[in-house]
Amino acid sequence: MGLQVNIDEVEKALLNLLKALRNQKGDVIEIEPVDYYWSIDRDDLYDPYNDPTQLTLGQLTDDLQTLKKLANCEFEPVSQDLVKAGAVLAAIGNKTVW
Question: What is the pTM of this model?
Answer without folding.
Answer: 0.90
